[in-house]
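REQUEST FORM: STRUCTURE PREDICTION
Request ID: SP-0412
Submitted by: Lab K.M.
Chain count: 1
Length (residues): 485
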Amino acid sequence: MMNKIAKTRFAPSPTGFMHIGNLRSALYEYLIARSLGGKFILRIEDTDRERYVEGAVEVIYKTLDLCGLHHDEGPDIGGPHGPYTQSQRLTFYREHADRLLAEGKAYPCFCPAQGYEREDEGEERVHFGYDRRCRDLDPDLAKERILKGESYVIRQKMPLEGQTSFIDQVYGKITVQNKELEDQILLKSDGYPTYNFANVIDDHLMEITHIVRGSEYLSSTPKYCQLYEALGWEIPHFVHLPLIVGEDGRKLSKRHGSTGFDDLIREGYLAQAVVNMIAFLGWSPGDETQEIFSLQELESRFHIEGINKAPAVFSYAKLKWMNEQYIRALAFPEWKAIVQAKADPAFGDKVYDLDILAQVLQPRVTKLSDIPDMITFLTQRLPLSRDLFFNKRAKLDADKAAQILASLLPRLRSLEVWTEESLSRLLEEAAEALDIKKGQIMGSLRAGLAAQQVTPGGAIETALILGRQEALERLESVINFLSEA
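STATUS: Completed
RESULT:
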C-alpha cells in the first residue's frame, strides 16, 4: 500500500443536494490526495434507487466545480477504472459475490427482510437481528430453491469467534468481537449491491488507498475489513472524520440554520468562504493562528495528523466573518460583476453608477443576499418624514434642513459636470458662502436623497449613484414636502 500512489474517492449518492458533511468529506479527500501528490476520484453511488433524485448528479458536478475540487477520474471525464457510476458496475458485484459463494465464504439467504416471529421461552417476539438460519443450508437445496424462482439475497459468512481490529488514522486502534457482526448482505434480491459491498469492490478495483468518511461509519468498518480479508485484498488506510455539531453541541441539522451548500450560496455566502469554513470542521493547521486559507494554501498545509477527534462546531457567525474577509479581498472587477447581478434587477430601467455603488458596498457587505435590501433607498423613493432630518449632535432639524436644501438646489442644478470632485467642491463652497457647518449640509443632503439617516456611503456617493436627474428630482420633492409638512 505504501508504494502505491495515494488515491482518495468522493462517492456521493445523488439524493438532491450537497450537505455540509458531504462537502467536508469531499474537501478532506481532495486535500489528502493533493497533499500526498495523489489523485482524487469521483464515483457516483446510485444503487439505492428509491433515494435517487433526477438532476442530482449535475448538482454534484456543479458544487465540486464551484468549490474548486476538480477530480482526476470520474463519470464525466472517464479514467482507467470506469465506469464510475455504480449502477453501471453490477457485473463486477455479481462476479465477486459468485466468487465468495464458490469459496464457501457467502451463502444464499431466503429469509424475509423484516425478520421472523419466533417462539422464545413460550413468548412470541420479532427477531430483528439475523439468526443465520440459512447459513448452513444444503447447497443443492439452495440451488433448487433458486431455480424455482424463490427470492434470495447473498450474505457473507462472518467469523463466529475472535476479534476484528483495524487502525484508523484519527481514532487509533479499534477492536470489535466477531460475534457482534451480523452476516451482512452483499447482494440484495434485486441484484443490486449493498452499500458496504459495492464500496469495497469499487475501492479495490479503483486502487483507492485512503477511505475518508464521517465517524458515524466507524461501527461498519469491521465489516469492510472482513470483506477485504475474505477477498484476499489489502486493507486501505481509514480516516474517519469527527461529527459536525451546532453551537449547542447537538448534531448539525436544519434547526441550526442552512446545512446545504446550495442554501448557503443562496443566502449570500461565497463558495470560497464556505470551503474555508468547512476546512476547519475537524482540522487545524497546528500552532498557526491563520484562519483565511485559499484552496491552494490548504493543499500545501493540510495533513492527516491535523484532523481532530473532538466534534467540530459549525459557527454561522464565524462563516459570516470569513465571508466578509473574502468579499473585501475580491478583485474589483469580480466584485463589480457580483454587485451588478444583484443591482440590475432592483434598479430595473433606472440609470445608476455601478462603479460607485460597488465601491461603496465592498467594505460594508457581509452576505451577497443583503445587497438588495441595502440599496432599496436607491432603487425606490422611500416615505419622507420630518424626523429624518433631526440630528442633535449636528444641531439639525427639518426646518434647518429645508433652508439648507433650498439654498443647495439652485447650485446643484447649475452643476454641469456631475462628478465626485465637482460635487465635493460645490458643497465646500456652499458651506463657506452660506456660513453653514459642513456636517449640516451633508446630513441634510444624505437624508434628502436617501430618505434615511444611515446609508452605505455618504451624501456625495449617494448623489453619484443616483445620477444628476434622479438626485435633483428627489431634492425638489423633499423641499416641497418640508415646506408643506
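NOTES: The longest strand covers residues 163-168.
Reviewed by: T.R.
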